[in-house]
Amino acid sequence: MEQQKKTMKALVLEEPKKPIVFKEIEIPTPKSGQVLVKVESAPINPSDLAFLQGHYSSNKGYPCVPGFEGSGVVISSGGGILGWSLVGKRVAIAAQTQWGTYAEYCVADANSVLPLPDEVSFNQGACTFVNPLTVIAMLQIVQEANVKTVVHSAAASALGKMMVRYFQDNGVQVINVVRRAEQVEILKKEGAQHILDSTQEDFDEKLKALCTSLNATIFFDAVAGELTGRVLRCMPNKSTVYVYGGLSLSGSVLDPSDLIFRKQTVTGFWLTEWLKNKNIVSLLFLLKKLKGLLLSQLKTDIQREACLEEGINAVKFYTSNMSKGKVVFKPQNRQEKQNE
């Protein structure tokens, strides 16, 4: 085990909706069932943006260190057989504690840590949980409903590109909804067959025709706002919307007649809650499947690395360039060592 320092560099959120601050704080001590991880990579995800803006449910109090996932090396355990077995290993992290991954060190529950194969880089490993597991979960929902075609908004996102690859390889077609013309080309490169730009005048007409011909009865919505109801109106009766994000920063707008007379339904999807309903055998099976797909169907595009000192500027950059790939914090790097 490496010699521990007493303090660490971190990004700290003092209270909701306030800018994150780069500062030096004490290195946390893991409790029983937890591990301390030296963080090598930590991505910015839409869920992180929502948390910074005060729009995401979490058990974190304030002040706290943001960052829900990352990768690194376990350097100590707070106790427990699983925790001690992880010391010294390269791991992917799902961090729900006060001390998230936007720091040199983070604390994670030992059962939320996944050893990484040697061939998986820290950058790829850092993107193991949020998007890949969400895509795997969504395919299970679709297969259990015996649905062969789905609609997906914000389809040029990292998750959207994964969905195209993973769903099509498993026999499910995706009607991809984007908001800019350049995003159409991004998805074509991924092999997407059905791509519609919601800013085009004939969007609703084309969407309704596709949903009808392909019997698309599930819609995974990452945008919310008026798009939720707009897409639902174009779908067959008894369709279901799973709202899993709110990129529009607006509540979903729906026509009550669609719910009353067409028997459409709207529900939410939260990966954390979905995983809670899985038994240990199911979770182990999921993680085994996940490890085998990280470098293929569920691979993440990385567009830029940033050190912690870049903090709010890195967040702003990602917010404006989300469809181009992930921005990944490298907590062990200092600003003067970064390449342009």
TrEMBL record:
Mind listing the UniProt keywords for this protein, alphabetically?
NADP, Oxidoreductase
The record ties this protein, via SMART domains, to: PKS_ER (SM00829)
What Pfam families does the record point to? ADH_N, ADH_zinc_N
Q: Report the GO molecular function annotations.
A: NADPH binding; oxidoreductase activity, acting on NAD(P)H
> InterPro entries given for it?
ADH-like_C, ADH-like_N, ER, GroES-like_sf, NAD(P)-bd_dom_sf
Which segments constitute the Enoyl reductase (ER) domain? 18-329
PANTHER family documented for this protein: QUINONE OXIDOREDUCTASE PIG3, QUINONE OXIDOREDUCTASE PIG3-RELATED
What protein name applies here? Zinc-binding dehydrogenase family oxidoreductase
Q: Which organism is it from?
A: Tetrahymena thermophila (strain SB210)
Organism taxonomic ancestry = Eukaryota, Sar, Alveolata, Ciliophora, Intramacronucleata
